[in-house]
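Postdoc handover notes: sequence design on the structure in folder B. Input C-alpha cells:
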C-alpha cells in the first residue's frame, strides 16, 4: 500500500486550539486516496530526519512552550531548512510560524530566538493586547478564501523579499495594519489561522496533499 508519513513537530508542546486537527485532516485526505498513514511526533531531543516525511506540521502555542522549544529547534534547523528548500510541504501555525522567523518578543518583552530561516520578525502588542476572533483571508496564489480563528499577542512583519500567504479580508493577520497574512515560500506556509486551518478549508488541504504526493517541487 502507498504510504504517507507525517511529522508533527513538537506536537506534545505546541498544539493550541486544536491545531492537531491539521494533521488529522491531512491524514484523512491521504486515507481517502488509498494511502496508509504514519504520524510521528518529533519533540525535544528526538532525532529529526526531515527527508523521510511527506508533510511536516508545526503548531502554535503559549509563550512558555515556545521558550521551551527554542534551543532544541536550533538543532533541527539544518534539516528543516533543507526540507523547505527542496520544496517539502510544511505548514506552521501561529507560534510555529513566529519561530521560523528571526525572533519573537513575548508578552513580557523577552526575546525568544527564532530559527532565522526566514526574515520575518515578531514583537508583542502594547498593553498586553491580543488579536482574537474570526479571520478571513484571500490566498495570494489562487484567490481562494480561507477562514479560521486567530489568537495572538505577537505582531509579525514580513521582510521585503517575503510573499504573504493571503490578504486579510476580516480580522487582523500578521499585524493588523498592512493587511498581510502569513507567508508562503515554495511549499511552506506560515500563518496565524488556527481553525484548524486544513479541517475548515478543504481545498487547501487537498492542494497540500496533492503537492506532497506528486512531489511537484518545481516552484
Ligand atoms: N504565544 C504566541 C502569541 O501570543 C503564539 C500564540 C499562538 O500560537 N496561538 O503571539
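Designed sequence:
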Amino acid at each position: 500500500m502507498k504510504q504517507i508519513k507525517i511529522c508533527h513537530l513538537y506536537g506534545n508542546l505546541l498544539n493550541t486550539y486544536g491545531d492537531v486537527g491539521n494533521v488529522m485532516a491531512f491524514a484523512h485526505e491521504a486515507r481517502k486516496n488509498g494511502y496508509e498513514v504514519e504520524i510521528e511526533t518529533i519533540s525535544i531531543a528526538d532525532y529529526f530526519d526531515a527527508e523521510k516525511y511527506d508533510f511536516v506540521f508545526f503548531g502554535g502555542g503559549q509563550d512558555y512552550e515556545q521558550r521551551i522549544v527554542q534551543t532544541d529547534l536550533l538543532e533541527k534547523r539544518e534539516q528543516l531548512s533543507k526540507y523547505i528548500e527542496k520544496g517539502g510541504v510544511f505548514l506552521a501555525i501561529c507560534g510555529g510560524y513566529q519561530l521560523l522567523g528571526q525572533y519573537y518578543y513575548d508578552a513580557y518583552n523577552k526575546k525568544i530566538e527564532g530559527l532565522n530561516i526566514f526574515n520575518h520578525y515578531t514583537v508583542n502588542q502594547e498593553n498586553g493586547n491580543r488579536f482574537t476572533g474570526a479571520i478571513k483571508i484571500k490566498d495570494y496564489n489562487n484567490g481562494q478564501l480561507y477562514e479560521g480563528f486567530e489568537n495572538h499577542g505577537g505582531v509579525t512583519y514580513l521582510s521585503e523579499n517575503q510573499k504573504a500567504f493571503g490578504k486579510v479580508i476580516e480580522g487582523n493577520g500578521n499585524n493588523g495594519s498592512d493587511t498581510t497574512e502569513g507567508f508562503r515560500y515554495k511549499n511552506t506556509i506560515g500563518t496565524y489561522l488556527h481553525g484548524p486551518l486544513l479541517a475548515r478549508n478543504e481545498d487547501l488541504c487537498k492542494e497540500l496533499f496533492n503537492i506532497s504526493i506528486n512531489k511537484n517541487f518545481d516552484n
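Context for whoever picks this up: The two ends are 28 Å apart (CA to CA). Don't rerun without checking with the PI first.
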